[in-house]
UniProtKB/TrEMBL annotation:
<dbReference type="Pfam" id="PF18895">
    <property type="entry name" value="T4SS_pilin"/>
</dbReference>
<dbReference type="InterPro" id="IPR043993">
    <property type="entry name" value="T4SS_pilin"/>
</dbReference>
<keyword id="KW-0472">Membrane</keyword>
<keyword id="KW-0812">Transmembrane</keyword>
<feature type="transmembrane region" description="Helical">
    <location>
        <begin position="87"/>
        <end position="104"/>
    </location>
</feature>
<feature type="transmembrane region" description="Helical">
    <location>
        <begin position="45"/>
        <end position="67"/>
    </location>
</feature>
<protein>
    <recommendedName>
        <fullName>SCP domain-containing protein</fullName>
    </recommendedName>
</protein>
<keyword id="KW-0732">Signal</keyword>
<feature type="signal peptide">
    <location>
        <begin position="1"/>
        <end position="20"/>
    </location>
</feature>
<keyword id="KW-1133">Transmembrane helix</keyword>
Amino acid sequence: MTFSRIILLALVATPLVAFAQATGLVPCSGPDCQACDILKLIQNIINNFFIPFAVMLAVIGLAWDGFKMVTSGSDNPLLHSVFRQRLKNIVIGFILMLGAWVIVDTVMKLFLNDQQFGSWNKIQCIAQPVPTQGAFANVGTTGTSTTPTVITNASSTAISGTVGGKPYLCTDCVDLRSLGFNCKESQCFLDKGTAAKLAQLSSTYPLRITEAMPPTVRHSAECHSTGHCVDATISNVTNASEAVIFANTASAAGIRAVWEGADCATRDKIRAATGNPRSAYCKSDSGFGHITGTHYSLYSN
């Protein structure tokens, strides 16, 4: 390959690389990435870089060899034959590339329903539900548990202990019962800041706190070990529409509300309405098989 052709290819490739970067080759970021995104990355590279580059390369090849054939100034038929063969090879290669795609596309559309299976040439990654700080993830009660140590002073309460072998500690807690909350357990404490946010929410929604500090079972969510989240039931939230309204009201008060229940249809409605796959979970979701009844996990934002 001559030096001039290398320069020409570099001039064409540079804007193609910039275009590929601008379109966002990487389909995810940080903890949101999953195995499926690797395949989507490959698809993005092919669609945004290799295909445009192949088309541009074919055009350059045609233009360059055509230009050389016209300007060669040679009456040598063998030389002209070489140029014509190059042009022919470029055209045939390009037709084969497009033809292969058209054939596969036609066959796939004949035998597969796009509405049911999706487009064959598009990779669609579905977010996998995972237990997060916004999820009540019970990991069992194995291990040792201790009687909570409660130290109360004039302004706050410190509570500590272990449950299922996991330590918990809240150094600036307040008794939710003293704030008028209805609690399932006899001991019902929460971090002061989180309690203040819940108090705003309780003026509209009657919260019954079913899990606070000290935790009664071991949780994977760390906030259950520090007193920054609770589980609660709400009597006046009975369907998906009301659940979405409650979640918005909670968010305005600085609380992230996550619906958890056995009915996966309700979960789907809440997710669709909020556009957030982590706003609701049901019993069939990974890590949520322990769910027996509808409740909310409420977390301080």
